[in-house]
Amino acid sequence: LSWAPRPGLPPASVALLASGPDGEMLWLDVTHRPGRAPWVRLMGRYLLPPCKQRWHTCAAFPPQGGLLVCGDRRGSLLLFPCSSSPEQAAESAGIANGGTSPVDKDSGSSLDPSCSAHRGALPLEAPLSVLFGLHGKTGVTSVTCHRDYIYSTGRDGIYRQLRLQGQQLEVLRKHRPCKGLQWIEELRFTPDGDLLVLGFHADNFVVWSSKTGENLHCIPCGGGHRSWSYCSSPSDEAFAFIKCGDVMLYHRQTEPCEQQVLLASLHGREIACVRHLGAVGVPSHGTLNIFVTGSEDTTACVLALSERTRAAVPLARLSDHISSVRALALASPVGPGDAGLSTLLFSAGGRAQIECYRLLCAGDPASESAVACQVIHVASHRLDEHWERKKNRHKLVKMDPETRYMSLSVVPGTSTEQLSTPWKFLAAACSDGSVRVFGLLEAAQKLVLVAESFHHQRCVLKVETFLHARAAGERRHLLCSAATDGSIAFWDISSTIAGATAALHQTEGEVQPLDLGAPLLTVMAHSCGVNSLHVHQTPEGRYLVASGSDDGSIHLCLLGVSPSGGQAAAGTCLRVLERVARPCAHAAHVTGIRVLRPDLLLSASVDQRLTLWHWGPGGLDALSTTFFHVPDLAELDCWEVAEAGGELRYYCVLCGQGLEML
User: Fold this and answer.
1) What is the pLDDT of residues 151-184, one digit of tens each?
2) What residue segments make up the domains of the chain, in order of their start?
3) Which GO BP terms sit in this record (predicted)?
């Protein structure tokens, strides 16, 4: 049995869902009548999917009307149709009785016998949409509707955000409120915009605030296998539960919060990577820059930074990673469009885990942050999950669970005209010495490994991809990777992309990883690890490759691309046209570098210096140096903005033990 408030009913009425034998669930409207038995009206009959424990655990009526969302003991979410007119259901149930009401209002019984006897007059509805086992085998604990979204909780430590697409349920994203809270029971939305997560942590009842990221209450009650109820108001709050047959009550008056947050934190640990998503103009708020950051605290954060107030406001927090987030990549074009910014975001890091999201950001003057951000989880991939699907895996050596993705780069220009379902490709630098290429089909929510190479035989720190267009219109996809020995390898992955696309189309998303082959060219740029790498195309069709190293040096390499053998249909030949090195350009690791123009270079180091360089016939000359305030610099991102007068300005954002925009 479960109760569910239904929009449109009077305050004294509520819906009752009852599960019975053979997976049949009844929907009854119950009206309280003071001094008399409740008035009960049968509204619908539903059939739950077959499973071992075939009963529902919770239900809710979305505000759109005409639908019913249920969670069952198997962990599935179900969407059923329901009549938007109670009179139609009442008439259909009362036809066999020859009356206009299924219940005699003057009877003393809570349910008229004819209502049960003639329930066969109502059809047994099957679900319109089923998300099987969404919360695992431990079951769904609650379903809540808030605004245009549906939220479900389970005993898997996760609550999910969903929406209705026609008559289908679509999962947008999942949230882990805090570590250790594996038994989530319910969600409460407060008037001040906070989301309270109610659940059990070990043998304690916990109320977790998503806004402040802390436990508001922790009450020892013995654990979650018990009946309980929690109620709060602006003046007091109460928690009642049953323990050892006794009814226990915890009550306390609300005290004013004396804690004042002077500056809210973006992450709990250092920021390892940052990407600039774009800018959103909001009336009366000016221009807001949207960034995505990844941290050692295992989360990624979408935030808005106002140039007017200089305040960073988190818009969304992504908590799908089980280890640190070390690399981010955005699939261009980013926008903006009529509805704001839209792009695909890839995040990767420890435990060889990649997550993919669709980000939608638009101005919203009514909200506190002035920007509305919608996050849709598209796909995910883990190497050990790939290993667990292999046959005879007990005879194989499992992949290194400590493998980390160090860098990501989206392969440009891979939308294929010959296929109706275009794939996007992602290159990853891995700590196990490999360069891997993944394919993403957003419509099918598939992210698969399509190619790899262990050429470097040591940790690969950076990877970049770029597109070369030949005179005949042919395009070649090129990749460069840098390792801890200071070498930079250049690959032509055009045939790999074409072969993977054909194989993915034929096998519907499951392929054996291809071999990237041998690189076209390898350049020993540094004496130790390459911590920063950037590729810039010159107007002459050449490519300027800039890199920074652990030893504080900067290396520039100008490459020319031509067909091998002199034929347009042949392979690719790379030639080093010019090289220049600047030893001791910085006093510490160079962890950020960007080529702004063919003659202009920007570098940033752990020595907290941001240096602008001019590249000319005489080599690299320092133009200016700015000291920034972020210690332990991890990464640098740059973008250009055309001002109203036609002046071109360059902006950069730095991350490490903090975040700074210049």
Assistant:
1) 999 999 999 999 999 899 999 999 988 877 889 9
2) 2-175, 273-378
3) tRNA methylation
